[in-house]
Write a structure and sequence with these properties.
The structure holds two protein chains of two kinds. Chain A is mainly alpha-helical. Chain A is 75% helix and 0% strand. In chain A, helix 2 packs parallel to helix 7 and helix 4 (123-144) runs antiparallel to helix 5 (148-162). The N and C termini of chain A lie far apart (57 Å). Chain B is an all-alpha fold. The chains are: A mainly alpha, B mainly alpha.
């Protein structure tokens, strides 16, 4: 694994992997969407609205998965000071925020017909909203600190402090008896959901995971290239080449 | 006089003298509490019901107000670099700074809460509970804020960013602070249950936050 921690090797690997993961994501999401719209049955209580679940639940998983990816990258930043970990961290923040946002919006659309309200201040909804706020704070931190190395270390510390929210989201529905239904897929007694509904859900979840991986790799690649451009333009400015030439005494007068 | 107590005295004097932050925090607290009845209307029943929440939000914002100065001034004049080079562990320095800061900002807030609670028509058990929860909860807010202050120490205008970074993390403290303060007057849940969780949160924050803030200061000063 350490061999691919070299940015150049990573670029080569990412270039080879991205078409495959992107293709897998497209196929899985297409199959998953077809199954969730046509082959999966409507719920006997919730009717057709249950189909929102096939977007809502994978988005929620990915929102938390994104944070865990970011946390491991943050450890990479703080422990090994690796620039690739910095890039992985920076790339994961807006992606995680996007999946959290999808989760909240689909949840809101689902909640209106089922609970009769667009939003309730239930424990899981609120902790998910806090997750979105933490993501947005991290994005703001990345944008505010100019030097990429320092920004990465600051974001890493905040990420690790904020990771406390993840178990709160996961167990909020067990700890507080709230409106949001408890976990039905990952249970020690086996999933409490019928297989005709479980399959499209799992396929969508894998499709979303591959989508996340693809976008994450593309975004890391952009970040590496952006850093190279930054370094090259700084070097060019230091040498006084091109448009960055410092003013000479004659030019100034 | 040991190094730690000398540092404490220095921090305490600076925090107390410069800008009179203690008195200013209490005035800001009063202004926030005064703004609520203008916004929600002067209905005393409503105000007494949401009174603990008003006092807690006002306390949270007033605590955040002075926190951007926690490391900024020392970073500007270079004394922070001296502290980081000294033999005293940086975590202990952060702890002492936070403690001194809390004594001049958080403590006056908590002590003035019963008087402002009277204006919001809280009953005596409610007044006692809100004071007690603020007394226990504001150290957690100060110590969490120290992490944000350390992360934004090198930025020119870090105040707003600090609030964005830290406010989501203060949610648990606020939930249990307000719920135990309201439990004392409404009485469906015993006061002690959320209050003990608040104490636990506060103690855990005081123990862990200096490490995070010190790590942030070290990494940001490179």
């Amino acid at each position: 694994m350490l061999r691919y921690a070299n940015p150049t090797n990573f670029l080569r690997l990412a270039g080879r992997l991205i078409p495959w993961t992107a293709g897998l994501a497209a196929v899985l999401i297409a199959v998953g969407l077809y199954m969730s719209f046509f082959t999966a049955p409507a719920d006997y209580q919730q009717g057709e609205t249950v189909r929102i679940m096939y977007l809502h639940v994978p988005a929620a998983w990915l929102a938390m998965f994104g944070y865990m990816v970011m946390t491991s990258a943050a450890l990479g930043t703080l422990v090994w000071r690796h620039p690739l970990a910095d890039a992985a961290q920076k790339a994961a923040a807006p992606l995680g925020a996007a999946f959290t946002f999808i989760c909240l919006v689909t949840g809101s659309l689902w909640g209106k017909p089922m609970w009769g309200a667009w939003w309730v201040w239930d424990a899981r909804l609120t902790s998910m909203l806090v997750l979105l706020l933490i993501y947005l704070g991290l994005v703001a931190l990345w944008q505010t600190i100019e030097d990429p190395g320092r920004a990465a270390r600051a974001a890493a510390i905040l990420t690790i402090v904020g990771v406390i929210n993840i178990p709160i989201i996961k167990f909020s529905v067990d700890w507080w008896n709230t409106l949001h239904q408890p976990a039905s897929v990952f249970k020690t007694s086996g999933p409490a959901i019928y297989s005709s509904m479980l399959w499209p859900l799992l396929i969508m979840a894998f499709g979303f995971t591959f989508l996340f991986t693809t976008l994450h790799m593309m975004s890391i690649r952009n970040e590496i290239l952006r850093r190279r451009i930054r370094r090259m333009s700084m070097l060019a400015a230091a040498r006084g080449e091109s448009g960055f030439a410092p003013l000479t005494a004659e030019a100034r007068s | 006089m040991t190094r730690t107590s000398a540092l404490f005295l220095r921090e305490w004097r600076i925090a107390r003298r410069i800008g009179g932050s203690g008195a200013m925090g209490v005035v800001f607290f009063l202004i926030l509490v005064t703004t609520y009845p203008f916004a929600v209307g002067p209905d005393l029943n409503l105000l007494s019901r949401i009174g603990p929440a008003i006092l807690w939000i006002a306390g949270l914002l007033a605590t955040l107000l002075g926190l951007d100065r926690l490391f900024q001034a020392d970073s500007d004049d270079g004394s922070l670099d001296l502290m980081m080079m000294s033999e005293t562990p940086l975590e202990l320095i952060v702890f002492v700074k936070c403690l001194a800061h809390w004594l001049v900002t958080g403590l006056p807030l908590a002590l003035s809460a019963p008087f402002f609670g009277l204006m919001l028509a809280l009953d005596p058990p409610g007044l006692g509970a809100v004071t007690l929860t603020l007394l226990v909860g504001t150290p957690a807010l100060t110590f969490l804020g120290a992490i944000g202050a350390a992360l934004t120490v090198s930025l020119r205008r870090g105040g707003l960013l600090m609030a964005i970074l830290i406010l989501p993390l203060t949610v648990p403290v606020m939930i249990f602070g307000v719920s135990s303060a309201s439990a004392a007057s409404s009485g469906t849940v015993p006061f002690i249950t959320p209050f003990l969780i608040l104490c636990a949160l506060s103690l855990a924050t005081i123990a862990a936050a200096p490490f995070a803030a010190a790590a942030a200061l070290r990494h940001m000063s490179e």
